[in-house]
Amino acid sequence: MKQKVIVYRKVPKDVLTLLNEKFEVKYYKNLETESYSDFLQELHTAHGLLGSSLKISKELLDHAPNLKIVSNISVGYDNFDLEQLNSRGILATNTPGVLVDTTADTIFGLLLATARRMPELDLYVKSGKWNGTKDEDLFGVDVHHKVLGIIGMGSIGKAIAKRAHFGFDMQILYHNRSQNNQVENEYNAEYCELDELLKRSDYVCLMTPHTPETDKLIGEREFRLMKDSSIFINGSRGKNVDEEALIKALQNQRILAAGLDVYETEPINKDNPLLKLPNVVTLPHIGSATKETRDKMARLAAENLAAGLEGKVPLNLIK
Ligand SMILES: NC(=O)c1ccc[n+]([C@@H]2O[C@H](COP(=O)([O-])OP(=O)(O)OC[C@H]3O[C@@H](n4cnc5c(N)ncnc54)[C@H](O)[C@@H]3O)[C@@H](O)[C@H]2O)c1
Ligand SMILES: O=C(O)[C@H](O)CO
């Protein structure tokens, strides 16, 4: 008899075909709009789970006594309770690598858009306000030749550093769990302790995973250390930042501006003060979201899942 897999996120047709050839598949294109109680019922007989964002908690796992593997269609896996998964012998996988360049493009684009106030200026033109000479009120700040501090010099951090160094002649500072010879040699990056990076950077870009160690890593104290002309970019996870402190820092002009792809609560609440601030550029957690890359992520996640259910070691097993 075929093992049963639940896919709880929309995936490309060929990925679904691949899964259908090997497994019995229950497919929920969008769990938010489909019955969650039906999903929980199906979980009782599932061997594999494929999707993203869903909190894989003790409560959810209690509904899944036969589960062997959970495969995330994302590189971040802060939605997994790894202790619970380990204690039940359930494998967990993610999709690193395939999304690196796409995410770095988005985050660097966000940095440029924030520095040069592109969304604000787009609105200025489209709303018919462009009548004469452009005055200083519309000016942005330079990106080229400035200092970029990257916190979390992993795969995506490195790809951002590459763009900044070769494309924009920026000076790169970085803070990471360990020093990285490659970025130091290839992009002339300089390792710094966190406080020093915050003090010296014109742009601070956060790219660490969300872990107990990085929870609210950037808060009031850290914003105070930053230059009042600095721009903060968060492309990692919202919970890595104390959002209240960020709002205060922006309202009080402790920092100049922020570009955000991620938030403490997602989707962001409509009454979140961040949405009212002119010096904030917001994206809807879209870093890796191009069609090509999302397809690659879904394919890789399906391959990880299939390997685990076929008794092989999945390529991207989370240890
Ligand atoms: N906005 C998006 O759509 C999007 C897309 C992809 C990834 N992400 C986020 O970006 C994160 C990074 O992705 P990646 O592929 O570069 O991962 P990665 O594992 O290659 O890199 C993470 C880096 O963070 C460093 N790090 C971890 N804890 C740290 C700490 N306490 N202090 C300093 N450095 C620390 C690690 O040493 C590592 O170099 C993901 O975990 C995910 O949360 C967001
Ligand atoms: O971690 C990731 O891969 C992105 O945030 C998409 O969820």
Automatic annotation (TrEMBL):
The residues covered by the D-isomer specific 2-hydroxyacid dehydrogenase catalytic domain are 5-318
Keyword set includes Transferase: no
Q: Where is the D-isomer specific 2-hydroxyacid dehydrogenase NAD-binding domain?
A: 108-287
Classification via InterPro entries: D-isomer_2-hydroxyacid_DH, D-isomer_2_OHA_DH_cat_dom, D-isomer_DH_CS1, D-isomer_DH_NAD-bd, NAD(P)-bd_dom_sf
- Which keywords has UniProt assigned to this entry? Oxidoreductase
What family does the database annotate?
Belongs to the D-isomer specific 2-hydroxyacid dehydrogenase family.
Protein's UniProt name: D-glycerate dehydrogenase
Source species of the chain: Metabacillus bambusae
